[in-house]
Amino acid sequence: MAQKSFEDSVRAETSIFGHFPTNVLRFSLNYLARFGIAGVVVYSCWIAFYNYNYWFTWHVVLCTFGYIPLMAESVMLFLGDELWSRQMTRTAKYTIHGIIVSLATALIICGDSVVFHYIEPGHHLYTAHGITGLISLIFLVISIPVGLVIKYHREVNPYLPFRLIWYKAIHNILGILGYVIGIVSLCYAFYTNWFIYYTTYESRLLALVVTILASLWTLNGAVLSLAHQIKSVFS
User: Where is this protein found (predicted)?
Assistant: First the structure.
């Protein structure tokens, strides 16, 4: 009996140790993505302030901060291997996620509003960067009331025509689409006339690669969660 207990203990320790390399790798990638995001934020904001151009500088700064790091951090909040978020309850995570997303969306709205008066051919909103940015903003704005339904589902449950899991899936889809299209818009921004004038080809290419890789990694938890939600919807 003692022998069996000892073998079970060794097996358990071996199983735990077997996950250690994976945990270290994911932890490293999480913070490597954060360092990359921080680098892109500093790069974009430094160029915007160094070459200050009134309203356009604030468009760059506010939208950059809205998508990265705020929107990126709101997505990473639910990763199972995040040390700081693992200390929170699920309810606390939802609350903090909602606050971050709302703040990020507000910054993006403010950043976009300074270019809305250029809605005419040949100007900002007629570029790939402007069009994708506007589409992203629409998805993000729609996702917020759906998120509120999820948070206060007990109060509004009698009025909901579908199961809660449907709203979670819809919120996740809207959030992922808004975030991904927003990152696409940011990538297009690196090749707008303004950025091209003030930067070098090498710096823009590096910013593009880092933005894509870091953003893709931040999405891994959200995509996995969406897969489980879709499976639950049709089960």
Answer: Membrane
Compute the CA torsion angle 109, 178, 164, 166 (nearest 10 deg). 140
Rounded Cα gap, residues 129 and 131, in angstroms: 6
pLDDT digits (tens, 9 = 90+) for 60-72: 999 999 999 999 9
- Count Cβ neighbours within 10 Å for each residue of 160-190 and write b for 16 or more, e otherwise: eeeeebebbbbbbbbbbbbbbbbbbbbbbbb
The confidence band for 143, taking pLDDT boundaries of 50, 70 and 90, is: very high
For range 207-215, the mean pLDDT:
96
Asked whether the beta carbons of 122 and 80 are under 8 A apart, the reply is no
Beta strands in the chain (DSSP E): none
- φ, ψ (nearest 5 deg) of residue 83: -65, -45
3-state secondary structure 164-214: HHHHHHHHHHHHHHHHHHHHHHHHHHCCCHHHHHHCCHHHHHHHHHHHHHH
